[in-house]
TrEMBL record:
Record-given protein name: Delta-aminolevulinic acid dehydratase
Keywords: Heme biosynthesis, Lyase, Magnesium, Metal-binding, Porphyrin biosynthesis
Assembly and interaction partners: Homooctamer.
Organism lineage string: Bacteria, Pseudomonadati, Pseudomonadota, Alphaproteobacteria, Sphingomonadales
Spans through the membrane: none
Length: 331
């Protein structure tokens, strides 16, 4: 036996025991990394399971408050809210988004009343309010018009901020909306309301369970490719992020999550700003179906994918697994 037969370095050495693995871990997941998206629906005492999202329900306002308490008790710092607007309140112009008593605003107020120490993030886009399921206003050809849509998004943002939203998250992908919303928030006395821009949001096949959840799937005509990004593009994501930051975004989001971790890592390297990823509905469903089919251990799949976001450089993750993962992590 000669010394040449020994490996120069044994990278397995620090992996040998649990205490040593803990000591050498480069990243850690905690409940504080999560934003929990919740779906709100009309009624009292209502829980409506969503078929396309096993384990996820729509909740009436009274019951969403219970979810907020659970989240706080599990150490989750922030909720994201999405309304399932009744069909009779949807219109071509999405005017219900401006109603100070709409489902979203009632949910925000109820949560902030009952659980003031949890953050509330609200999605800004018109798709839960339009009869055509698009995120903005249409011209006669069906094209989503940019600048007129922004006027409505400003009103929607101010409506949410007045109800108590802490983070406004424009998911519509109109050009220039972050700057316009920022200016309006400042002018109307909401200087401390943050903007998390859905900066690199792709036209993705992974959103369809979400569209079921907010009731826009059957309504949607066409696709969203003339405003959401082409999955072929990476450089363009950096331009989107640069613009949203210049317009005053406090943080940026990449969406979907796992298929776009390269974008997360590039944004983080280039800009050194808080980056969030949205592990979207189709990703959630994929994990649930894989686990149900016996492909892998459910908790293992959940925690491994969530850790991947941290490793890629995320400050946090929007995930439908937030409550379960937070409990696994033992807040
Ligand atoms: C609305 C919006 C969508 C999602 C979040 N905000 C759907 C879409 O753009 O069609 C998707 C989230 C998910 O799939 O979990 N603009």
């Amino acid at each position: 036996m000669t010394h040449a037969s020994y490996p120069a370095l044994r990278l397995r050495r620090p992996r040998a025991t649990a205490w040593s693995r803990a000591l050498h871990a480069e990243n850690r997941l905690s409940p504080a990394d999560f934003i929990w998206p919740l779906f709100v629906t009309e009624g009292d005492g209502v829980e409506e399971p969503i078929g396309a999202l096993p384990g996820v329900s729509r909740w009436s306002v009274d019951r969403i408050v219970d979810r907020a308490r659970e989240a706080r008790d599990a150490g989750i710092p922030c909720l994201g809210l999405f309304p399932n607007t009744p069909i009779e309140r949807r219109s071509d112009d999405g005017a219900e988004a401006l109603n100070p008593d709409n489902l979203m605003c009632r949910a925000i107020r109820a949560i902030k009343d009952a659980v003031p120490d949890i953050g509330v993030l609200t999605d800004v886009a018109l798709d839960p309010y339009t009869v055509h399921g698009q995120d903005g206003l249409l011209d006669p050809t069906g094209y989503v018009v940019n600048d007129a849509t922004i006027d409505v998004l400003i009103g929607q943002s101010l409506n949410q901020a007045a109800a108590g939203a802490d983070i406004i998250a424009p998911s519509d992908m109109m050009d220039g909306r972050v700057g316009a919303i920022r200016e309006a928030l400042e002018e109307e006395g909401h200087a401390n309301v943050q903007i998390m821009a859905y900066a690199a949001k792709y036209a993705s096949a992974f959103y369809s369970p979400f569209r079921d959840a907010v009731g826009s799937r059957g309504l949607l005509k066409g696709d969203k490719k003339n405003y959401q990004m082409d999955p072929a593009n990476g450089e363009e994501a950096l331009r989107e992020v640069a613009l949203d930051l210049a317009e005053g975004a406090d943080s940026v989001m990449v969406k979907p999550g796992l298929p776009y971790l390269d974008i997360v890592a590039r944004v983080r390297d280039r800009f050194a700003v808080p980056v969030f990823a949205y592990q979207v509905s189709g990703e959630y469903a994929m994990i649930e179906h894989a686990a149900a089919a016996g492909t892998g251990d459910r908790d293992g799949l959940i925690l491994e994918t969530l850790m991947a976001f941290k490793r890629a450089g995320c400050s946090g993750v929007l995930t439908y697994h937030a409550l379960h993962a937070a409990r696994l992590l033992g807040a």
